[in-house]
Structure formats: C-alpha cells, structure tokens
Amino acid sequence: MAKIVYLIGAGASAHALPIVSKIPEKLEEVIEDLVNLRSIEGMIENEIELINYAIDDLIWLKSESANHASIDTFAKKLFVKNRVTELTRLKSSTGLFFSMLQTKNKVDPRYDQFIASIIGNSIGDLPKDICIVSWNYDNQFELAFKEYSDHHSIDNQEVFLGMIHKNHLKQFEKDKFSIFKINGTSGSFSYGTDQKRNLLNRTDEVYDSKFLRNLVIEYLKISDNLTRYKNFNPLMSFAWEQDQKFEELINQLKEKIKNCQTLVIIGYSIPFFNRKIDKEILDTMSNLRTIYIQDMYPETIKQRLFQLIPVTEQKSIRVEYSNDLNQFLIPYEL
User: Fold this and answer.
1) What pLDDT score does 172 carry?
2) How far is Cα 232 from Cα 67, in angstroms, rounded to an integer?
3) Dihedral angle, C-alpha 106, 143, 268, 260, nearest 10 °
4) Are strands 232-236 and 130-134 parallel, antiparallel or unpaired?
5) Spatial CA neighbour of 168 closest among 151, 182, 148, 149
6) CA 279, 18, 159: angle at the middle one, nearest 5?
7) Starting at the edge strand that comes first in sequence, how are the strands of the sheet with 262-266 ordered?
8) Which domains does the chain have, with CATH numbers?
9) Which of 76, 79, 134, 174 falls 20 to 30 Å from 241 in CA-CA distance?
C-alpha cells in the first residue's frame, strides 16, 4: 500500500502544456501549423479536406475555450445540458490539440527529473510506497518514461508505469507503483472489450509534415467511428461522468492509498467541481500526517484543502510549503 501519495494537476505540466489562460493562444499556434500544412507542394484535394476538418474542430475549441473559464468548465456545461455530440467533439478535439502540442514541445523536464529521482536499477524498479493520483489527461508521464524504457509505444509506457483509469482497471496491483488518471487520457479511445486506439501512438514522433498528415488522417477516422459506433468512446472523461467503471476506479484508488501518511500536492488548485472526489480521497487517508504543497500560491491551496478536512483532524496534520517550481518535490519520508 502506498504511504506517499502525489496529487497533481495542470500546473505540473505547465512547462510543456499551457495553463488555462494560454490555451486559446496555443490553439492558434497549432491551427496555424495545419494552415501551413495545406500549402505544402504535392498536397492533394482529399488531404486538404481532412486538414480543413481538423482545423474547423480546433477553431471551435479555441472559440469555446476563450469564452469559458476552462475546457473543464465548458465540458461541465455540455454534460449538464446533455449535449452529447458536442461533449464528444470537445474530447476528441482536445485530444488532437494535446497530441500536436506534446509532440511539438515534448515533455516537461520536471517529469524526467522526478522519474530519475525515484527509479531504481531497472524500469520495473519503481517505489511501491508511491501512488500518483493525476487529474491531468495529458501524456507527460508516458513521454518522460520512454527515456528509461527504450520502448516507443504509448501503451507500453502505461503498462510500465502501472497506469490505471476507468477503462483499464486490470492493471491494478496493490503493492506496485501506480498512476491513477482520474480524468482518463486525451487522444485515446476505446472500442469493444479492452480495445484501445490512440491519436498519439509513439513517444518518438517528429513534429513535421509527415506526422501532421498522418495525425489528421487518423483524427478523421476516429471522428467517423465516434459518429458511427456506440461502443467507440473517448477515454478522456471527467469526475462528474460517473458510472460503474468510475466507481470501481475510485474503490481501487481508495484501497491503494488508505495507508497514506504523506500527501504531496503539485500544481493542483482543488477546484470546486472536483471537491466531491477530492474529499473521498482525503477521507480515505486516515493516517495522514504531513501535506506538502508545491505551488506559486500554497496558502490558497491549503485554505481550499482544509475545507475538505474535518477541523478535529487538521491539528494532527503538518503542512509544509514549497514555491520552488523547477523540480517536483521529493519528501524526505521517501
């Protein structure tokens, strides 16, 4: 069972992926890359149509991102209004955006440094006392771990890292290093039983015209499948989209972290619409003694966090701050 739990949010990937306020700007950047792709010599009409389809979806995502506090906020609105088609479009276009930007910018170097700090003498030698709970739907851990595994398949990295989300629960092992992705993964889609398809399949892709051509072709195929087949669905999800698989995921997570004594929070703002799940997570940690908060504004995070912890328990928990954002915090308890 994990004694040290990391709770991470979007700020943990901020050196590679944009914070909320910068998403429209970065969307404009990748849209321009696709616009430029259309003008490459030898581009046939059918390919241009595929590129235009992808551009239209990214322009739509950019417009909606600019009009809402975050992509998650827009997703919640679509979910409440039961606008299923648009919610699916949001998930697929976000997957396209993240696949492009992560290939272009590569990995936030702090992930590489973190893995180097905790890994032992082999790729299977990751500390069983650590469990990572991620609200992010990016591929930063997978992209970083390829430097150690020498495998280029995204799916292989997930296995090495013990990565778990509601559509991949069989990988759970109590006494091994695990990463629970509460919101799933953008750019990944399920069909049938344990079948998976990714927009970004490899960790060694080069951001060039060949990559972009292949990506938009795959994006159109996936978009078509999302329309035609009921059992073809995005693996990106949100905490409010609860079903039996999500409940099983949370139950497995609780089993994994129930002996947690040290919590490390990195780049996570404890947003209101996640608080139900966050409270369930915190309530499970009956042995919690120390919380480390790594953030530009750690006091604000503590205030939000302590709203979820009974006053009678707060006095027994030591809280330490870190505003050093150059590397992920490694607690001395490790």
Assistant:
1) 62
2) 29
3) -160
4) unpaired
5) 182
6) 65
7) 163-164, 178-181, 130-134, 4-8, 262-266, 290-294, 318-322
8) 4-15+107-188+240-322 (3.40.50), 20-106+192-234 (no CATH)
9) 174
Chain segment 287-326, per-residue pLDDT in tens? 999 999 999 999 999 999 999 999 989 989 999 999 899 9
Q: Judge whether 233 and 192 are in contact, CB under 8 Å.
A: no
Q: For strand 4-8 and strand 262-266, is the pairing parallel, antiparallel, or unpaired?
A: parallel
Indicate the helix (H) or strand (E) that contains 262.
strand 262-266
Q: Judging by DSSP bridges, how do beta strands 178-181 and 184-191 pair with one another?
A: unpaired
* pTM for the model: 0.93
Token pair for 50: 């595929």
Task: At 183, list the tokens.
Answer: 């919101």
- Look-up: residue for tokens 């890292």? 161
Task: Find the DSSP H helices in the chain.
Answer: 23-38, 45-67, 71-80, 84-105, 109-118, 140-149, 154-160, 209-228, 244-257, 275-284, 298-306, 311-314
Distance, in Å, from the CA atom of 308 to the CA atom of 251, rounded to the nearest integer, reads: 19
Which residues on adjacent β-strands are paired with residue 191? 232
